[in-house]
Structures are given as structure tokens and as C-alpha cells.
Amino acid sequence: MIEKMSDDKLLKSVLLEVKKELFPKLKVSKKILELLNELQDLTGEDQTKLLEVSLENKLKQVKKCELKAILRPSPIQSVRSRYISQVIKRKIRKRANYTCEHVSMHRGRCAESRNLEFDHHIIPYSKGGKNTLENLRLVCRNHNTRQFVLDFGTESLEKITQKN
User: Fold this and answer.
1) Domain segments of the chain as ranges
2) Alpha helices in 9-153 (DSSP H)
3) Which of 115, 120, 134, 164 could form a disulfide with 125 if both were Cys (CB 3.0 to 4.6 A apart)?
4) What is the pLDDT of residues 40-80, one digit of tens each?
5) For residue 7, which phi and psi values (nearest 5 degrees)?
6) What CA–CA distance (Å, rounded) separates 142 from 4?
């Protein structure tokens, strides 16, 4: 909302909803405006020009920082992680209808809805499997353990259980 105050002062107030990241920029702009108010002996044109130059310089600095952030990969992108995003988890749960997705040749689909875990089914995580909808499934703890034994053998399972 912008209100016209008078001919010599254009803005009375500006109401905006802004992201938290914008506050440092607003603080700088506020300081610039405060400096301008202190420089009463400058003409209106000089004040406008000073404000314009100051804001342009600050925006150049901000753009440089933003460009560096874009060009520099974030640690999350460059480091492989077991983290599965909430969006992916939600989609998998919905796809699975909140029950185990294991299907047995003899018994059909498992109906367990408790103790569900995310399983890297196609390619195990330790063998390069990714956290994608296609590679992940929702399974009960028993079927996740069963899949682990099929992928890595009982010796690996025994090592893990001995550590805990």
C-alpha cells in the first residue's frame, strides 16, 4: 500500500510482506535514508542522486554475493546423503497406502502398517542407490531386514546386530 502525502514528499508508508532474507537489505536502505535526512542542506535533486547511487552500489554488492552463492555448490548437493526429503517420503507413503509394499509370490502384498521403514529397493544405498521415488519403497521392519540379508548376507546382519 502506498499513500501520497504531499507534493514535496512522495511516500508516507509502504506496507509489504517480505522474506526474512530481505531484512538486511532493508536495514541498509533505512540507514541510507536516515543519512539523507541528516543532510538537510542538500537540494532535493542531490538527495535523490545520492540515494540512487547508494542503492545501486549496494545492489551490485548483493548481486555479487547472490551470484557467488549460485556458482558455489551447496554442501547438501555435493555430499551424498542418506537424507530423504519430506516430499519424497510423503509421496512414497501415499503410493504405498501407508502399508508395507513388499509383495510375496505366495502370500501377495504384506498388510503391515506399523514399524514402516524406507528401503532402497532397486539399488541399495551402499551400492550407489539414490533417494528417488523409483528406488525407494515403504516396507515393514521384517521385510527391510529380509531384503538386507538378500543383498548383503547374514554375516553382515550379524556384524550390525553385534555393534548395537
Assistant:
1) 18-72, 81-163
2) 23-38, 44-71, 75-78, 86-96, 141-152
3) 120
4) 556 667 767 777 777 777 777 767 666 665 555 544 444 67
5) -65, -35
6) 69
